[in-house]
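Consortium newsletter contribution from the modelling node. Members have asked for a concrete example of what our holo predictions look like. Here is one, prepared for the adenosine-2'-5'-diphosphate complex that several groups have been discussing at recent meetings.
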Amino acid sequence: MKKKTNYNIAVIGATGAVGQQIIRLLEQRDFPIDKLKLLASSRSKGKVVAFKGQEFVVEEATPESFQDVDFALFSAGGSTSIALANHAVESGAIVIDNTNAFRMDTDVPLIVPEVNLEEAKKNKGIIANPNCSTIQMVTALKPLYDRYGIERIIVSTYQAVSGAGSQAVNELLNQTKQLLNGEEITKGILPVGSLPVKKQIAFNAIPQIDVFEENDYTREEMKMVRETKKIFNDSSIKITATCVRLGVVSGHSESVYVELKEDYDMEEVVSLLNNAPGVKVVDDPSNQAYPLATEAAGKLDVFVGRIRKDLDHPRGINMWVVSDNLLKGAAWNAVQIAEEMIKTV
Ligand code: A2P
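And here is the predicted structure:
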């Protein structure tokens, strides 16, 4: 990619939960754009989306959509990325892919700018955005990894429905209304659209995100395991995850237990977190201050609180990590990668 004053951007999945946030962020951050192309499925062809006071018509994404595109930001599901990302690369675009399609490919960098931005330079046309739950956890753990090393992570997530797309948000809102009206609920796509059995999400906690793998962990849990090792470039980290979907619209929360390789000083831990890029500490038990999904919604940072020594393990720490899953967990991480790349071309 050549240095330019303004860049041509395509957003694939422009009508979806993440795509809409990407469009808002490009607008708010005044990303230097020459031409903006909004792409989705044939269902959305002709829809109009406002950007900086102008109206843009959504086009159907096809292999020919990427002529002259510098950055193609994909958030239209794994099968769309598999079908179209290589066409975008062949047309000369850098693909920043929000799906699971290429994350574990050895020649695709998996990037969280606060953690491993330098890896992005090795891209061969595609850069992958990690899973939302992984992004917020590794952003919070990065300063501790650098200072003490990490032996083991045990994470339990409390994830919002917006991570499963806009249809899942509608499902939660509809079920909530139905239950409050004393009606029978309709179940549409949760926990997994492609599986036959559906579960109630309103007023519930579902311990299944994505399909089960052969080892009885879900794919979401295994994404956290595999992606964390790849992002830190450290396969020695022991990690186990339990991922749970809650009846929350926006913001993923995580209980993270981390065992460090070296002894730590708690004041230093808090100071490292306070100074870490992209991290904000909200931690004052005496005033009931801790991160909340409702308060993280709409913000770009990863919030960390409830930081406390493990009672038994001398190198163990527990913390509560919260972020807006559609922003740092998806759209912001992708736009941030593009912003960083244009700084260095
Ligand atoms: P559309 O609105 O036309 O279906 P979400 O994650 O909120 O469910 O959004 C998914 C996004 O991916 C939407 O913008 C959707 O467009 C888009 N999408 C789904 N399938 C395709 C496809 N085959 N080609 C291009 N975009 C697609």
